[in-house]
Amino acid sequence: MNGTTPAGGHSLTQRMIGAATLDIPTYEEVEHDGTATSQAAIVVGIVAVCAGIGGVGSGGGGIITGVLSAYLGWLVWSGVTYLIGAKLFGGTATWGELLRTIGFAQTPGVLYLVRIIPLLGAIVALVVWLWMLVAGVIAIRQALDFSTGKAVLTALLGLICYVLVAAAIGSMLGLGTAAL
Fold first, then answer.
1. What tens digit of pLDDT does each residue of 67-76 get?
2. Whole domain around residue 97: which residue ranges?
3. Tally of CA atoms within 13 A in the half-sphere of 113 that contains its CB
4. Contact 18, 25 (CB under 8 A)
5. Is the dihedral of CA 160, 27, 135, 91 positive or negative?
6. Which of 28, 46, 47, 114 shows its CA 20 to 30 Å from the CA of 101?
């Protein structure tokens, strides 16, 4: 993506900055912009590459495996949160709306590049993980149009289901849960 502004919206860079700064209108914008799904996919890919580069030498599965795992994880996580949030708790989102908001919620993960720096990288990785967790709850809340409490509960139940699904998929593919 060249940074141009899509019809009715902001550029990928502007949206990433908005998502990283936990800007509610940004999450609302990407939720309602059906053309932003490809941008969300680009964000997931960028974050996966940054995590792969930051994890060089840590025994990971490589950048290509990381990118494929990131996309699979994004699809599964969005699907699980959709089923729990929309079907169980009565949220109003579609799966596509969750794909977009959850994809952009991964934006702080670009800082996983810093993991390549010994010691500092581990501290930054923890902060980024917590930052992404907060962004994810905001993404879920905004997409499903319900309270923060329901968003947190959706995320917690979703995490349990996600781990189970990831373990099953990883077992079938011989990857283990770390790959997802």
1. 998 999 899 8
2. 12-179
3. 8
4. yes
5. negative
6. 114
